[in-house]
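Q: What structure does this chain adopt?
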Amino acid sequence: MFLEIITPEEKVFEGDVQSVQLPGTEGSFQILDNHAPVVSTLKKGNLVLVDTNNESKEIEVNGGVVEVNSNHIIVLAEG
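A:
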């Protein structure tokens, strides 16, 4: 899957990942390969991604929106 994390100031991350865990406003959820298309709002919390080297990385977000479509994930995060 290809993940982009963008804030108003900069592109925080861009690359291939195995999974992404997100702080949804209705609860935390995870996106894996071939996930159904979805658009969701995010609350303040930690986004956890696992890259193709099986290394985990946490990125703090202050809310935002995520769109998943055809193994392409775009997170528009508040700074």
